[in-house]
Design brief:
mainly beta, four-stranded antiparallel beta sheet
Length: 126
């Protein structure tokens, strides 16, 4: 089992920045990919960004490309997302997720991830 704990959410104004962190309890060899998803009230959970440990590959949703940067620290078992130029439409609960090594799935599909954090609220006021 991998436990994920997010932190860093909060209330900010339009144009501000936030950095979310996600600490994984297990060694990273059990996880090959991690991602950030978000869910706004009344909407489905949507993909934000993903990071694959091997090769340091990153993927972004079009809505955040150029504003958000995902990164990971193997030594700390920690995933980050730096969110810049935040907009009111970025308001959501942000979830960290991890995909088991050996699993099959696409980086943007929530069903590809076996482990999820509890979520952290990000609110952007206009």
């Amino acid at each position: 089992q991998v436990q994920l704990v997010e932190s860093g959410g909060g209330l900010v104004q339009t144009g501000d920045s936030l950095r979310l962190s996600c600490v994984a309890s297990a060694r990273t060899f059990s996880v090959y990919q991690m991602g950030w998803f978000r869910q706004a009230p009344g909407k489905e959970r949507e993909f934000v960004a993903a990071w694959r440990w091997i090769g340091d590959r990153t993927y972004y949703a079009d809505s955040v490309k150029g504003r958000f940067i995902i990164s990971g620290d193997n030594a700390k078992n920690t995933l980050y997302v730096q969110m810049n130029s935040l907009q009111p439409e970025d308001t959501a609960v942000y979830y960290c997720a991890a995909a088991r090594t050996g699993s099959i799935g696409t980086y943007y599909d929530p069903g590809s991830y076996a482990y999820w954090g509890q979520g952290t609220q990000v609110t952007v006021s206009s």
